[in-house]
Design a protein that fits this description.
single chain; globular; alpha/beta; Alkaline Phosphatase, subunit A; nine-stranded mixed β-sheet; 17 strands; two-stranded antiparallel sheet; about 35% helix; about 475 residues
Length: about 475
């Protein structure tokens, strides 16, 4: 078999210890060369299907009913931001600061929280009312609070998982069990994408996070729906550039030949979505060689835009870049963007921890809301802010707070959400969600509902039954309250 490769191309292959042998098993071929094949592969994107299958799987699809949002930016505060220092003001904590809990609260059966000999800790930051709505927000967010009338704050979030790992899996997949698809994967499975030159689902982190790809996994869905890990600094997308010794025509020829071998190998392994994903990975990487550099080139943005997002040095620079890139992604048709801000685990110095964390995100998220609005993108871009749980009203150590999943806060904006409102409440001490309780499954059902997807109809047959993001739970009644003034 003659491949018609130029001498330069053959030299590239030879330098990577490739042997052009059509009888060689595809797995051996990729094992020897795949990791060094920067001209063809996108190293962090081994999860999209072969060209025809990918086009079909990710083609835009109609929603179940008219939705108010087209895309999602999911702002995840990994570690568990304290609701008591951010969006849930509890003045009674100040009154009881340093005292034991009232006996009625000591009798509560809260797993892994010792309420009998623990002392109350007052909120570490003052709250004030913002906007025409008068929504109370912590002084931690002087810029974000200026958008209070665009935010719907849910103060009654809850679930049952006290440990970071299982709680993060719950927040992203609706269950504590590994191996289930993330919210983003379900969204892309339901709606497809409007871009054929960029990933449908992108995940970015500021570098401090746990659980890795489990937070943007496709689980038992086909691998095409997995999120793509994109870096905020350095080289955002690894192995994307074509080596200088090979031109586009030669690269196209190589891709076609590899696709032929891959398909022959795939025929012996029907149903292997991971193998099919690797086939299309080459094709998407080829198209991204043009689209991705333009996406990540923030130098084309004005100085005013950089200032808006806090990208001029200082603690907000990295997350500011992530937020600006997320705007550029939804602008180009990316369906689901997940931004992960790590470091909110405030067991020790809760005040110092949250002060430094807020400095990272306050200006970037406020800038993102303003930028989306001025470009006409906020109306159909849903923003969701949440952590895996909140923090305890009682003191841990000298001035820290422990994990607390029984009542915490989230907020939503854009995507048709009417802001300037609060939904649900915890008790006077912030222990339990007691009014209009919103389980994580309810939040997921609501997100899907705003996108026009019925969480009970969005199913995938796996291991003998139809599976869904919300499993046997989830109520979508929150969506109607979010889009109604």
């Amino acid at each position: 078999m003659k491949l018609g490769l130029s001498p330069a191309t053959r030299e590239i292959l030879a330098s990577r210890s490739f042997v052009i042998n059509p009888l060689r098993a595809r797995r051996d071929f990729l094992f020897q060369g795949g990791l060094g094949f920067g001209a063809l592969a996108l190293g962090d994107m081994l999860n999209a299907e072969d060209t025809e299958s990918r086009s079909l799987a990710l083609a835009p699809r109609p929603s179940h009913f008219p939705g108010t949002a087209k895309s999602v930016i999911f702002l995840f505060m990994q570690g568990g931001a304290s609701h008591l220092e951010t969006f849930d003001h509890k003045p009674l904590l100040t009154k009881y600061d340093g005292q034991l809990l009232p006996q009625s609260l000591q009798d509560f059966d809260l797993a892994q929280i010792n309420t009998a000999d623990s002392k109350v800790m007052a909120p570490q930051f003052p709250f004030r009312k913002y906007g025409e709505s008068g929504v109370e927000i912590s002084s931690l967010f002087p810029r974000l609070s200026q958008h209070a009338d665009k935010m719907a704050i849910v103060r009654s979030m809850h679930h049952e998982l006290f440990i970071h790992g299982s709680a993060m899996v719950m927040l992203h997949s609706g269950t504590s069990l590994l191996g289930h698809p993330s919210v983003g994967a379900w969204v892309v499975y339901g709606l497809g994408t409007e871009s054929n030159s960029l990933p449908a689902y992108v995940a970015m982190t500021d570098g401090m996070f746990r659980n890795g790809a489990s937070m943007y996994s496709s689980g038992f869905l086909p691998a095409v729906y997995q999120g793509v890990d994109m870096r905020a600094e350095g080289t955002p997308i690894q192995n994307l550039q074509r080596p200088p010794a090979i031109d586009a025509n030669q690269q196209r020829l190589l891709l076609d030949q590899i696709k032929t071998w891959n398909r022959e190998h795939l025929q012996t392994r029907p149903g292997d979505s991971r193998l099919a994903a690797r086939i299309a990975n080459y094709e998407l990487a080829f198209r991204m060689q043009t689209a991705a550099p333009e996406l990540i080139d923030l130098s084309t943005e004005t100085k005013a835009t950089h200032e808006l997002y806090g990208i001029e040095g200082g603690p907000s620079e990295r997350f500011g870049k992530m937020c600006l890139m997320s705007r550029r992604m939804v602008e180009r048709g990316v369906r689901y963007v997940q931004l992960i801000c790590g470091g909110w685990d405030a067991h020790g110095d809760c005040k110092g921890n949250h002060q430094s964390q807020a400095q990272k995100i306050d200006q970037p998220i406020a800038g993102l809301i303003a930028d989306l609005e001025q470009r006409g993108l906020l109306d159909d871009t849903l923003l969701v802010w949440v952590g895996e749980f909140g923090r305890t009203p009682i003191r841990q150590g000298s001035n820290g707070r422990d994990h607390h999943p029984y009542g915490f806060s989230a907020w939503l904006a854009g995507g048709g959400v009417v802001g300037g409102k609060t939904i649900g409440a915890t008790d006077d001490f912030g222990f339990n969600a007691v009014e209009d309780r919103v389980h994580v499954n309810d939040l997921h059902a609501t997100m899907l509902g705003l996108l026009g997807l019925d969480h009970e109809r969005l199913t995938y047959y796996f291991e003998g039954r139809d599976r869904r993001l919300t499993d046997v739970g989830g109520e979508n009644n929150l969506a109607s309250r979010l889009i109604r003034a």
